[in-house]
């Protein structure tokens, strides 16, 4: 029995010590529901701690939200991260994803990309336009619409089949999903570093050596 306890003690010691020195000194982010860890890292971590991978740097806003900044599209709030499936869901800090897409969502120079894209056309309609009427009516985008004008976005290939009388076509933009309508968040994926398998096996990724960019998987059972 004593031997078994000793075993347990060392087992847990091993388990807790396994995350290397640097892993322990990495800030977990400012939204406890969305823990930040490798390949993501907080901007506040000193570079020598090597907490994350290039392009995965997160900042804090209002001490409650993790923010990811896209060089050409600005700030988005991180809604959730799936380290297993290597997917991230982001939202607009002002809760109007449609406005951000309309401005042209550009994910160049980031490690992230949409799973798929589709062209959407943005229409400016009167609130009683046939496009809003059932059957098959669509809903106006609340954060952009006013009393006098309602805005709607349709997959471009569907515009021809819709009754767009009382609407004017504004612009065509890239929608980062195959959905028929604009949702509250944008789902993106990343390919490198490939740590999904490691995470689903109960491990975590980290830099292999103090200097190289090589990543390897650590599990509680290593060594
Ligand atoms: C931060 O808080 C201020 C005041 O409460 C608010 O006006 C602002 O929109 C917030 N910013 C974000 C990114 O949530
Ligand atoms: C994103 O913006 C940059 C700078 O304007 C441009 O070079 C790049 O082609 C854009 N990428 C996409 C996918 O539109
Ligand atoms: C979207 O439109 C652009 C420009 O018209 C076109 O090059 C592109 O292939 C379209 N994308 C899709 C997914 O249909
Ligand atoms: C929408 O259309 C109305 C009338 O056609 C116009 O007055 C208004 O400025 C338009 N709004 C936008 C954002 O294009
Ligand atoms: C579109 O809706 C208007 C107003 O309800 C109607 O007069 C018109 O016939 C409709 N057009 C088509 C092509 O269904």
UniProtKB/TrEMBL annotation:
Residues 1-22 form the signal peptide. GO terms for molecular function: polysaccharide binding; protein serine/threonine kinase activity; ubiquitin protein ligase activity; zinc ion binding. It catalyses: L-seryl-[protein] + ATP = O-phospho-L-seryl-[protein] + ADP + H(+); S-ubiquitinyl-[E2 ubiquitin-conjugating enzyme]-L-cysteine + [acceptor protein]-L-lysine = [E2 ubiquitin-conjugating enzyme]-L-cysteine + N(6)-ubiquitinyl-[acceptor protein]-L-lysine; L-threonyl-[protein] + ATP = O-phospho-L-threonyl-[protein] + ADP + H(+). Pathway: Protein modification; protein ubiquitination. Its main location: membrane. Residues 175-219 form the Wall-associated receptor kinase C-terminal domain. Pfam families: GUB_WAK_bind, WAK_assoc. Residues 26-92 form the Wall-associated receptor kinase galacturonan-binding domain. It is found in: Membrane. GO terms for cellular component: membrane. It is a single-pass membrane protein. The keyword NAD does not apply. Keywords: Glycoprotein, Membrane, Metal-binding, Signal, Transferase, Transmembrane, Transmembrane helix, Ubl conjugation pathway, Zinc, Zinc-finger. Belongs to the RING-type zinc finger family. ATL subfamily. This is Wall-associated receptor kinase galacturonan-binding domain-containing protein. The lineage of its organism: Eukaryota, Viridiplantae, Streptophyta, Embryophyta, Tracheophyta.
